[in-house]
Amino acid sequence: MLLIRRFEERAGEMYAKAKIGGFLHLAIGEEATIVGSTRALRDQDYLISTYRSHGHTLARGSEPERVMAELFGRVDGLCNGRGGSMHMFDLQNRFMGGYGIVGGNLPLAAGFALASDYLERDEVTLCQFGDGASNQGTFGETMNLAALWRLPVVFMVTNNQFGMGTALERHSAVTDLMRKGEGFGVPGMRCDGMDVADTYNVTCDALRIAREERQPVLVEAVTYRFRGHSMADPEEYRTKEQVDEWRKRDPLTVFGDQLVAAGVLGEDEREAIDRETIERVDRAVAFADASPHPSPNDLYDDIYVLGEQVRGWYSVDERTPTPHRGEDESAMDRAELPHAAEHAGATTAKPADAAQADED
Question: Strands, E, within 69-182: which ranges?
């Protein structure tokens, strides 16, 4: 939990310094929900999240250096700088990604669970989404199929009280979110998402039911994010007093105090862990900053079309005097490409016949 907190604090700083572009959604305050649920998974289980996914990636075992490099959009990132903040992905650790479309990850989770069931593998998929996504059409459709096909999947709705900037009671007629799957045949459970131990225990129960009884489960984790919806959020929809009240239940402070009271950690050890974590995040930032940017010539790599499935061109590169197929970029001698000089700061001169055609 400390790693997630310090990592995201630094990510926020890097965003303010324009090291990170696009959108940045922080999960500060939600660390107990992330860690408690993720630690309940087995190595072979699948985890799929939303656009607020840095913590899930770290909790699942991804290297902080590669996660930070992905935020920076660099080649050493988890997705070679192509995914950025909202689209983390680490197949090796069975973290199946963050997704920018609200509710878009729900049917994908059902697909993973269907594959596990079809292949008769002892795997469960944990799908996390926000309270706002429980009002999307994909929610009901996925609950119905998961129950109908008895899929090994646990859905966890992270109830952080707000769908973006809209309070729960203003966007959902049913505010008891654990009940929202029952009409589709998916029973509900609830955990204290600010308590890492309670989240872990409830998630373990839900995973057991899904794994052994082939019964999908909906878990509501009641939590709170201390920062806004994104770095661009002015937070005008809630009061400072409300945030301060929830901060009294900060999962890092509460769990740390519990460990000290139980004699598991001394105060000096607690402080040492924090220092080591900050140093680790500093190394991640240095690694990300030293990683190179992707080359423009890599633009067409890994496009999801195989062989000759598409007739004609599915991507076009017009940076040369004569446009060519974008997928041919990787096979061409890039040092001899007409636009190689253009990327170095020069312009590509047109051949005489093209110049004459322009005049005509």
Answer: 125-130, 153-159, 162-163, 166-167
pLDDT grade, residue 334 (50/70/90)?
A: low
| Domain locations along the chain | 2-290, 296-359
Q: Are 28 and 226 in contact (CB under 8 A)?
A: yes
**CA pseudo-torsion sign 264, 270, 275, 279:** positive
User: What CA–CA distance (Å, rounded) separates 107 from 316?
Assistant: 32
The pLDDT tens digits of the residues spanning 273-313 come to: 999 999 999 999 999 999 999 988 787 777 766 566 666 66
Strands 166-167 and 46-48: unpaired
What element of type H or E holds 47? strand 46-48
Q: Which two tokens stand for residue 250?
A: 């900060």
Least reliable range by pLDDT among 46-55, 191-200, 275-284, 289-298 = 289-298
- Indicate whether 49 pLDDT > 50: yes
195 neighbors 161 (Cβ within 8 angstroms): no
CATH architecture of 2-290: 3-Layer(aba) Sandwich (3.40)
- Which residues are within 8 A (CB) of 162 and not within 5 positions of it... i.e. 6 or more apart? 131, 132, 168, 225, 229, 237, 238
State the Cα torsion 151-153-159-163 to the nearest 10°. -70
CB under 8 A, 24+ apart: contacts of 323-326? 326/299, 326/300
pTM exceeds 0.70 for this model: yes
User: Residue 58 in contact with residue 93, Cβ under 8 Å?
Assistant: no
